[in-house]
Amino acid sequence: DIRNKSRATRLAKHKLKKAIAECCIFDSRPFALADGPDFQKIIHETMSIGRSLGKSIPVEKIIPNRTTISQEIDAMYTFRKNQLKKIIKSINRYSITIDFWTESHTGVNFGGVSLLLAPSLNAAFILGSLSVTI
Questions:
Q1: What is the pLDDT of residue 119?
Q2: pTM of the prediction?
Q3: Distance between CA atoms of residues 105 and 84, nearest Å
Q4: In the beta sheet, which residues pair with residue 13?
Q5: Which residues contact 62 (CB under 8 A, 6 or more apart)?
Q6: Smallest Cα–Cα separation from 87: which of 34, 128, 26, 28?
Q7: What distance in Å separates the CA atoms of residue 131 and residue 111, rounded to the nearest whole number?
């Protein structure tokens, strides 16, 4: 049975490798796609859903469409914005820096926002940084 499980694992890895390679080719995605923690999170969630639902539901029934994804991004943005507002209201002193630039070789535009904070009067000259992941 260990041999069958090992063979099944090799077959599953081969199928996944082929599917990711085709995704990179046909959807113009970078090869590093599979290295990303968020991609691995998608695979983990997919496997978890597959274990719980089995073959009873077609994959097309659970994959969200682009409108649903867009709405989820809007909801995530609103949640994080409100979360950030609460954090800023709880801090006595802070500085917000906004930076926009264009990469000279590719012409790709980037933007960034930094929130520097001094959490207490005793730390007036020591600025900390707060990372908010979206």
A1: 61
A2: 0.57
A3: 34
A4: none
A5: 49, 53
A6: 128
A7: 15
